Amino acid sequence: MSFSIRRLELSDLDAIEAIEQVSYPTPWSRSMFASELAKQSSLSLAAVADEGALVGYLVLSRYVDAWHVMNVAVADGHRRRGIASAMLRRLIDVTRDDAERGYTLEVRVSNLAAISLYEQFGFVTRGVRRGYYTDNREDALIMWKDAERMDSAGRSETESQVGTESER
Length: 168
Hints:
With about 170 residues, this protein is of the alpha+beta class. Helices cover about 30% and strands about 30% of the residues. Strands 1-2-3-4-5-7-6 form a seven-stranded mixed β-sheet, sandwiched between helices. The longest helix is centred in the middle third of the chain and has 13 residues, at about 85-95. The two termini are about 15 Å apart.
């Protein structure tokens, strides 16, 4: 399956809700997504299959010292196909000029697949938020990634570590 990545739009809200409902035990509301999409400090990406269906999304918000990855989800039938990786690569590429700002996120301690993915992109655990998730009081890992640096070949740390799509 091939897909493209573009900005997430308000017209995607129905598809976002459908993916969100099956992805999380405490899904964001439609109004939460609409609010994030409207913010000037937000960058939201959509992964769209060739036939036009939304198959994933990533919501990123800019804070004083970091880009906060707020929400990442991929439609159930499209997981483990590189969609989340492609969205993470794109967000790092798009935000690369903001060299002073790192990246942060929270992830359930039980979500080993997501933790592994984030580690591949250079995120490291820097702390724990105890009882962070309201559905079951599960802890969240606080993960952090420093701002991108370029290597001698002009590739970012992430590109050097996880490769480009043409190398896969």
